[in-house]
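INFO batch 0412 | record 1 of 1 | parsing
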Amino acid sequence: MKIMTKPVILTGLRANNDLHIGNYFGALLPIIDMAKSHADEYEINLFVPDLHSFTTPIDHSQLQGQIMRNLKLFVAAGLPLDNENIHIYRQSFIPAHSELTWILDCFAYFGELNRMIQFKEKSGIDREKQAKEALARATNDLGQERMDELLQSTVQSKGNDKELLKIILKYIQGLTAEDARGSSVGLFNYPVLMAADILLYGAKYVPVGEDQTQHLEFARDIAERMNNKFGELFVVPEPVKKQHEFFGKDQGLRIKDLQDPSRKMSKSEASDKGIIFLGDNPDEAAKKVMSAATDSVGAVHFDVENQPGISNLLQIHALLAGKPLEEVLQHHEGQTNYGEFKGKVADQVKAFLSDFQTKLESVDEAALMAKLQSSEAQMRDKANATLLEVQKAVGLR
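INFO prediction complete | emitting tokens
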């Protein structure tokens, strides 16, 4: 069994949902390029976060098929299966992820998890709305006169009198419990599982978007907390600033919804008409481009604020052509026939999907499964070794 001695880069490959061209250019290709460019100096851990995939409701009958299909998408996009420094594995096939999560749970604090923005957003918690509702409920229960007295006391004490604050916070806590009642404990606990994903393998570098920075900082905090209490159990991941320095903070192009270019292209949107899925029929995808929202300006310009639809099509055009946006603009700036311009982009989309789907059909499933099983055996040994040290430290072994 090959011993992992190089520093580790770790990132997740999406487990479920139909992937679209926004995912392709914003996630698949950057991950594959990162893996290829760093594999000589680093161990590259690419894992399928299948346990994370149902913190919010999904169709469980489709999950296994989606996992394997999305793995094939990565291979079709160029992920190499023959590099011994690139490891591809499914999270749920490494039981240590779940056990370490429970152990870390017992050293994590409710308050720090409750502050996670992702949990608030996905559970529908609106803090501003809560504050207004808390003030209204407190006023109704205590009476306006009493609330005025408390407010006056707070002002006169320059904030040192905390009684009003304590009352409002009590009501907010109650509202939080009401708002989050329909959310799963798994959604709340998501950052702890993510920390286990990272710490089991001693990962120093974890590329994260803005929505995941809090989770990475939590992984650092819980690692340092455990190390301070039990000795050097974990490698502490680099802080967010150093992560951005290492990977480069992504300022790349963002593909927007074709029907509503004020929003990013996302499967969570109610309609699929503005989304080009990697599995779309090429002709149908071309029709989506031809029906994309534009504007009344009447000339092609890259102006995200005033011409978001045309600007989005220019970005898609540049990405599919593999050219800088500036070069694409030289050919289309000022063009007045929107239909002709859309047709050019539609032809590109059709050709791209036809080519990609041909590659997808030719993916060697036996080779993919062999790579998964080989990586999972190796990762299981690594994860179990880390878990054993933790078990010994907390008295389980």
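INFO post-check: The domain at 8-111+187-251+364-394 is CATH 3.40.50.620 (Rossmann fold).
INFO record closed
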